[in-house]
Backbone:
């Protein structure tokens, strides 16, 4: 009897399309259980009522998350005018109403004046931010009175795509990390002298992960290990904007063993604070800084 070796899940990234109704944590737990993955995490939480791109890091790829610098995100969403909900989306309870409806001209003017560049917003009360060690949504569900802190975010593009009658408008936004689309919907409505909540939130892009190349979660969870490995993106997929330094195996092994490697051509102060991807052939060996020509590993990888 021939015993086949167990298939090992590779390290890398999955570009998952998350449908409405799933939490980001539920996606991670389901994958962990089905494929018996030890190290797994998501990059950028997506609300249960939102759909779209949810990047999942597996194995050694989890080490790269804190080094991702291309962290822009794209969304489309709808603002429903005239009602405010306690969750800032269509799942919540309506807490206020108004008959005021903004014109397209007013919406565009308010965007240009208040919602481009560095702005401040308060996360929704029903959100995962922590208040004195507890998640905000836990306090909100207990009807405990509190206020979330102002957060600075960046908005690069914000466009009105279409107006659907008088009661709703569809938008596109290109923004930095930490942006709550639900807060954007709430705040733009208030600036317009009305009320509003978000619905149909779709994340089109997160870093280098795009909706065009995303694979539906249900399709992935029904795969076997071989198929999963076939769609796995490289460990350094989200680090494409970081410069590479190629090393021969001898020097790559030195770094892995905790030894410093000197490279004369990199002996300059101009690049001392930058990160570099140290590779042997196509395999990521380390994420490192350079100091006086020496490669200083910040995170080594087992490849």
Residues:
């Amino acid at each position: 009897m021939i015993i086949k070796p167990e298939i090992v899940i590779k390290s890398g990234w999955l570009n998952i399309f998350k449908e409405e109704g799933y939490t980001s944590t539920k996606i991670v737990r389901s994958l962990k259980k089905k494929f018996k993955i030890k190290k797994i995490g998501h990059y950028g939480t997506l609300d249960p009522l939102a759909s779209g791109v949810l990047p999942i890091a597996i194995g050694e790829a989890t080490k790269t998350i804190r080094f991702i610098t291309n962290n822009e995100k794209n969304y489309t969403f709808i603002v429903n005018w005239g009602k405010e909900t306690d969750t800032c989306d269509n799942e919540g309870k309506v807490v206020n109403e108004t008959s005021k409806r903004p014109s397209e001209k007013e919406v565009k003017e308010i965007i240009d004046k208040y919602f481009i560049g560095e702005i401040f917003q308060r996360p929704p009360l029903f959100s995962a931010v922590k208040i004195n060690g507890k998640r905000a949504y836990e306090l909100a569900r207990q009807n405990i009175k509190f206020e979330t802190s102002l957060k600075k975010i960046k908005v690069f593009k914000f466009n009105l795509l279409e107006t659907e009658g008088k009661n709703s408008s569809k938008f596109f936004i290109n923004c930095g990390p930490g942006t709550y689309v639900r807060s954007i919907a709430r705040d733009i409505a208030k600036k317009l002298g009305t009320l509003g909540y978000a619905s149909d939130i779709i994340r089109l892009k997160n870093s280098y992960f795009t909706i065009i190349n995303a694979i539906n979660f249900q399709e992935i969870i029904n795969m076997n290990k071989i198929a999963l490995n076939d769609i796995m993106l490289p460990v350094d997929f989200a680090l494409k904007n970081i410069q590479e330094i190629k090393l021969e195996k001898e020097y790559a092994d030195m770094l892995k063993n905790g030894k410093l490697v000197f490279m004369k051509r990199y002996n300059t102060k101009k690049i001392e604070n930058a990160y570099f991807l140290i590779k042997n052939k196509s395999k990521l060996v380390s994420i490192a800084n350079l100091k006086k020509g020496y490669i200083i590993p910040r995170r080594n990888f087992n490849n």
Summary: The two ends are 32 Å apart (CA to CA).
